[in-house]
Amino acid sequence: MVMGVGRLSTRMLFLDSQMIADREGFARPASRSGHEWRGAFEERSATTRWANLAGFHQVDAMATIRTPKGFTPVVGGQVFIERNTFTIMGIENVKNRGRYLILFLRKEVHRG
Q1: Which of 1, 8, 54, 55 shows its CA 20 to 30 Å from the CA of 31?
Q2: Which positions ≥6 away from 16 have C-beta within 8 Å?
Q3: Is 59 in contact with 53 (CB distance < 8 Å)?
Q4: Mean pLDDT lowest among 25-29, 41-45, 53-57, 92-96
Q5: Which residues are CB-contacts of 33 (< 8 A; sequence separation ≥ 6)?
Q6: Among candidate residues 20, 50, 15, the one with its CA nearest the CA of residue 35
Q7: What pLDDT is attached to residue 1?
Q8: pLDDT of 3 above 70
Q9: Residue 39: closest CA among 90, 3, 72, 1
């Protein structure tokens, strides 16, 4: 797989939300900060790649990013891509070289 600058063109905003505990042990969310990266984004389609992932019924999209410096995406984290919110369901290290990560994403549907 060849990854060039042209393929890594989709802007992604990773939200980093941490919990702050006070002296009594109560936890509250801290103010959210974001980390912006560019990557390749692909939604579920009828391709061979998605046919091989048929067991992952909770995954709606995949994103490939270069391994960020100073920030590590975590399972359960949130990502904003093209005005949609996604939750990271899984992370795969491409060829175990530590250069690229594939993120398996589930689209968040807001009802209200």
Answers
A1: 8
A2: 32, 33, 34, 35, 71, 77
A3: yes
A4: 53-57
A5: 15, 16
A6: 15
A7: 47
A8: no
A9: 3
Which residue in this structure is represented by tokens 């391994």? 67
Which residue in 15, 13, 51 sits closest to 30, CA to CA?
15
Summarised one tens digit per residue, pLDDT across range 38-55 is 888 888 776 766 666 666
Instruction: List the single range of 28-42, 45-59, 89-103 with lowest mean pLDDT.
Output: 45-59
Distances (CA, A) of 73 to 14, 27, 31, 59, 90: 8, 22, 18, 17, 10
What CA–CA distance (Å, rounded) separates 85 from 61?
A: 11
DSSP 8-state code for residue 94: G
